[in-house]
Model the fold of this input.
Amino acid sequence: MVYVGMGITIIPEFRTTLSKDVLKLAVVPLEGDNEKNSLVAAWNKQNTNPALGKIIRSLCK
Done:
């Protein structure tokens, strides 16, 4: 989604070189002492892939 211009992500700083050089993405560093991040996930309720449930449970921990 990020690559096609329809999403954003937060990645560790060590991955930014790959992001800028190979994927041609813009990288905007977080600054300040009070950086916060939230996780938001969306999925298709009709998806029957068994891995989806495991991922959702992992995200809720």
In short: The two ends are 24 Å apart (CA to CA). The mean pLDDT is 78. The helical segments are 16-21, 50-59.
